[in-house]
Amino acid sequence: MNRSERHLRLLTETIAAVNSTLDLGELFDLIARKVADALEADACFVYLYDDRADELVLRASCGTRVEDMTRVPKMRPGEGITGTAAAERAPIMIPRAAHLDPRFKRFPNLREEQYESILAVPILARDRLEGALNVRTEEPREFTGPEIDLLMAIAGQVAQAIENAKLYDHAQQRVAELEALARISEAVSESLYLEESLEAIVKTTMAAVDATGAALVLEDGCIAWPEGRAGAHAARLPLRWKGRGVGELVCDRDTPFSDDEVRLLASIANHAAVALEHGRAVLRGVLA
């Protein structure tokens, strides 16, 4: 098979892979292997952009492995040769002594000094950064225009796969949110006892956002149904009834909460306020 045929086959196989899986880990591993083979490179590295941390995180490699039990290599856009390609939204090719380039970023657990050349390209979805990938060779090599265009085309297909996976994850998250709110609504409407409603809200909250702990804090400072333990990050959402604060929902986790999760917690807090006032109204009726 000649070089043009290998390149065409790589593009065809990439398109097929993008359309057949939502597993980004599986796809990235496949891309790293196929790209290195088709371009006759000694190594390929695929990075995914984490927009919350503003970091490019190594997700797959071929030719060089990250040393076991060490931190995953990460870089900010603009750091390193690959990070610079990501920040500038343009390919960067260095034919020899890439490790001597002032932009080179060394990772102690990722041996890259053995490679002479590098071709790094951004992974872009409608000009939005989704990641970056590069290929390396141990011998000096000047990558051709068609090879650069091919790697950019592959990066475009990978960007589409990332977009598809994000849309799927968002849809799944929305389903989980609706199910959580439905369970809370059911608990509030069916229970005649305030304690049961508050317990259901706290436990459902923890399950919905994979929290380490949660509690409802009433306006008098009393803590209702504390569950779990404190985490490194806390979200506090007010409980409001007819414009009046009646408490707050406190939720803890070891990782930060996303904007979508905060919105879900705000909806749960609204249900909790309704449950609290409903329970109090029932109690007042019993005591009247």
The biggest sheet amounts to: 6 strands, antiparallel
| Cα gyration radius (Å) | 26 Å
Outline: elongated
CATH fold label of the largest domain: Beta-Lactamase
Strands, total number:
10
CATH class descriptor of the largest domain: Alpha Beta
Low-pLDDT regions: none
Mean of pLDDT: 85
Order of helices and strands: HHEEEHEEEHHEEEEH
Biggest sheet, spatial arrangement of strands: 3-2-1-6-5-4
The name of the CATH superfamily of the largest domain reads GAF domain
Structural class, please?
A: alpha+beta
Strand-residue fraction?
Answer: 15-25%
Total domain modules: 2
Number of helices: 6
CATH architecture annotation of the largest domain: 2-Layer Sandwich
Helix/strand layout:
Blueprint: H1 3-18, H2 24-38, E1 43-50, E2 55-62, E3 74-75, H3 80-88, E4 92-94, E5 117-125, E6 128-137, H4 145-190, H5 194-209, E7 213-218, E8 223-228, E9 233-241, E10 244-253, H6 259-287
Antiparallel strand pairs: 1-2, 1-6, 2-3, 4-5, 5-6, 7-8, 7-10, 9-10
Structure description:
There is one protein chain. This protein is an alpha+beta fold and 288 residues long. It has two domains: 3-168, 2-Layer Sandwich (Beta-Lactamase); 191-287, Beta-Lactamase (2-Layer Sandwich), CATH 3.30.450.40. Helices cover 45% and strands 25% of the residues. The protein has six helices and ten strands. The chain has a six-stranded antiparallel sheet. A four-stranded antiparallel sheet has the order 8-7-10-9. A hairpin with a 2-residue loop joins strand 5 and strand 6. Helix 4 packs antiparallel against helix 5 (194-209). The longest helix is centred in the middle third of the chain and has 46 residues, at 145-190. It is elongated and about 85 Å long. The termini are far apart. The mean pLDDT is 85.
